[in-house]
């Protein structure tokens, strides 16, 4: 995997992924930025949610669960001192579908967290990561 990052101005950077997609990252005005894009740590958090969601949906599909919608609400805490790493991350999955089985959703989240999601397993080396979920009937 390759990527490229170029400094734009102040604390603003333009990243280009190996797949050719561009992302602007910037800081808050009080930190010298112009608020033109998300912060790098925000991208790390949502990237992790994307990674685990991909796994969960794939596992549920293989389990023949009829999912019609899925989203993840995240809440994270960071260390007070440098390096301000994530110390706690909570993922709340909301899965909508028809006749979804609670044990299948729970299993999919557990497999992602323990076996498949590289991002969350990596972050789990320094942060306490928790998960919960709710099922909504469509």
TrEMBL record:
| Top-rank lineage group of the source organism | Bacteria
SUPFAM superfamilies (alphabetical):
OsmC-like
Q: Which Pfam families match?
A: OsmC
Q: Which InterPro entries match?
A: KH_dom-like_a/b, OsmC/Ohr_fam, OsmC/Ohrsf
Designated name of the protein: OsmC family protein
Organism, by scientific name, is Craterilacuibacter sinensis
């Amino acid at each position: 995997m390759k990527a490229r990052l170029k400094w734009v101005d102040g604390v603003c950077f333009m990243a280009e992924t190996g797949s050719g997609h561009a992302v602007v990252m910037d800081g808050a005005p009080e930190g010298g930025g112009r608020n033109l894009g998300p912060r790098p740590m925000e991208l790390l958090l949502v990237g992790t949610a994307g990674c685990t969601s991909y796994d969960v949906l794939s596992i549920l599909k293989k389990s023949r669960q009829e999912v019609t919608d899925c989203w993840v609400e995240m809440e994270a805490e960071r260390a007070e001192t440098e390096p301000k790493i994530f110390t706690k991350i909570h993922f709340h999955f909301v899965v909508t579908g028809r006749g979804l089985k609670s044990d299948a959703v729970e299993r999919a989240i557990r497999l992602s967290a323990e076996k498949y999601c590289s991002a969350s397993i990596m972050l789990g080396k320094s942060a306490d990561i928790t998960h919960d979920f709710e099922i909504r009937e469509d």
